[in-house]
Amino acid sequence: MIKIENSAWDVMVSHAESTFPNECCGAMIGNIDGDQKRVTAAVPMENAYTGAQGARYELRPEDLLAADRKARAAGLDLIGIFHSHPDCDAYFSKTDLENSCPWYSFVVLSVKSGKFDHAASFLPNPEQTAAEKEELTWPKS
Amino acid sequence: MAKVLIPTPLRQFTQKHDSVELEGSNVSEVLTELISKFPDLRKQIFNDEGKLRSFVNVYLNDEDIRYLGKEATPVIPTDTLSIVPSIAGGAIDIAPAETGSIGVAEPSTTAPATTLSKEEILRYSRHLIMPEVGMEGQLKLKNAKVLMVGTGGLGAPLGLYLSAAGVGRIGVVDFDVVDFTNLQRQVIHGTKDVGRKKLDSAADKMLDINPNIQIDRYEVALDSSNAMEILAPYDLVIDGTDNFPTRYLVNDACVILKKPNVYGSIFRFEGQASVFAYPGGPCYRCLYPEPPPPGLVPSCAEGGVLGILPGTIGLIQATEAVKLILGIGETLVGRLLLYDALAMRFRELKLRRNPECPVCGDHPTVTKLIDYQQFCGMPHKEEPAVSVAQEGEIEPTEVKAKIDRGDDFLLIDVREPHEYQICNIPQAKLIPLGDLAKRMNELDSAKEIVAHCKSGVRSGKAVDFLRQAGFKKVRNMKGGILAWSDKVDPRVPKY
Questions:
Q1: Measured between beta carbons, which residues in chain B are less than 8 angstroms from residue A95?
Q2: Residue B487 and which of B15, B92, B349, B383 are 20 to 30 A apart at CA?
Q3: What is the pLDDT of residues B181-236, one digit of tens each?
């Protein structure tokens, strides 16, 4: 399961709301203890998708590399990726699945009419053919 | 030994090591060493064919090895390799774009095509049988939206081949009409099209080649007021312009809108091409932060251009556009290709994104479009091109009257000798602009002087120059020998 701490959650929600009606994206940093993942910081990133961003996002690998370095320097780990679904439920779409990476937790935030609505976390399988829902807790959930 | 940083989720396969020191002289050797030490890592990083999985990027220090020497990139013991995944997604279920390719814009408005007709399958057969393109690639081309700025020398081959290749939607911007001087290189237009709008002539030809495509016509001069709106629906932009203000405008708009800009330019026997404004790559301003002073770099109309040259450069741009759409090969992102037709030689310069770049840098200062005429030091159209010369202009008809009356004055032709051979006014004395300074002693400052060139620009400079040198009675023949042909003697050929 994955638990998102207050400060990280605030960053994620405000990033998702401020980029509405476009999708947002970013990385989640924290630590892992067995099956328990704890997100203590979120790094908002620029959506690098070159077309319309209302329903697409792309992370720049350079940004991810920088976030990973930042995490290592702080003795933390890069443990997940978050993105938003504007005016759409927090599910893991085929596009999400096929362009994901099986190594991380993927948290999707549903933003409706510019306000955070609900969220879910997913773990893609190694072949990226399916994603399993992961138990997610955030401050007010 | 080089260091390889292991991403957190993969440490379960590396006995919890977060980094590993490995031997190897290049990336491939280091990765092979990594796999042999931790065999469980193999299927995380490599596919069944032994290639890096599609989402895996390898960085050597701060550089993606794709832009270095790929897996053959040399590694020295102080280097650090990082494994970084490519991650994308989106709420809508559409055909995903592969890393490095251009996705399908605006999925919500028009559903992307998912099949080809029987006729299209036959038409694109030579594409379809190549696995690098195949059905998937041809559909990417069909669903792609490309904007071509200009249908001139570069736009001509671009229009012909992009429509033939099956790029589904092509926007074309041009406000010019076809004239005879275009036909030496703008092969999309024919002799029968002289006098027609270039847009119509080009669109007819493109639709004749491929009726399956959509052509959006923009009969405007691209400027700061319309560029964002015109560029918005397209996945990528191909710059076929011939002037600096529009080139900077296209660049800045592409950076702001995050659309790759496939750049090409030509002059006389030489050309350049690159891909700008690609995420993480440099832009035109990283290469040329400032435009050259106006008048320093002559246009093709002034300096001439080998007719075949734009064919070569335009097709390099078309190739890059198609590769970007298909997401295959190694594009010109971060490389400036230089072509010299006389030496028949290609050279390449490495380009880096400039973190200080005012448009695409880390702290951009240009975040919306500016006045590009002003940025390039160009006078606005309503202002006189050469202020001093304007006061001292003379109509060709008046010059003719002076000759006929037998007035005592000197007519000088400041063009080049090879231009003089094309056509001339017999009474004119040939002194090329570049020789004017050293041949000034041939001129009598007390006498009235009229200067002319092809269209009035160079003779305007000559007039300015002579006035500064103390000549008082100097005038510029308005419109040059082209106007002379129109207004005085139609037997004089125009060029």
A1: 88-94, 96
A2: B383
A3: 999 999 999 999 999 999 999 999 999 999 999 999 999 999 999 999 999 999 99
Which residues on A lie below 8 Å from B100 (Cβ)?
Answer: none
For chain A, list the domains and their CATH numbers: 2-137 (3.40.140.10)
The C-alpha atoms of residue B67 and residue B74 are separated, in whole angstroms, by 13
Q: Domain holding B31: CATH number?
A: 3.10.20.30
Residue B290: CATH number of its domain: 3.40.50.720
**Complex ipTM:** 0.82
The answer on B205 and B72 residing in a single domain is no
Q: Are residues B310 and B421 in the same domain?
A: no
Q: List CB contacts (< 8 A) between B87 and chain A.
A: 25, 58-59, 64, 81, 99-101, 104
A140 at B interface, C-beta within 8 A = no
* Domain closes at, from B316, B349, B375: B375
- Partner residue opposite A93 with nearest CB, options B89, B97, B102: B89
In-domain check, residue B61: yes
**b/e string for B456-491 if b means 16 or more Cβ within 10 A?**
bbbbbbbbbbbbeeebebbbbbbbbbbbbbebbeee
Element (H, E) at A45: strand A36-45
- Residues 54-73 of chain A with CB under 8 A from chain B are 54-62, 64-65, 68, 72
- Write the pLDDT tens digit of every residue in B436-480: 988 988 888 888 999 999 999 899 989 988 988 888 889 999 999
Domain span at residue B472? Answer: 387-487
B55 with A81: Cβ contact below 8 A: no
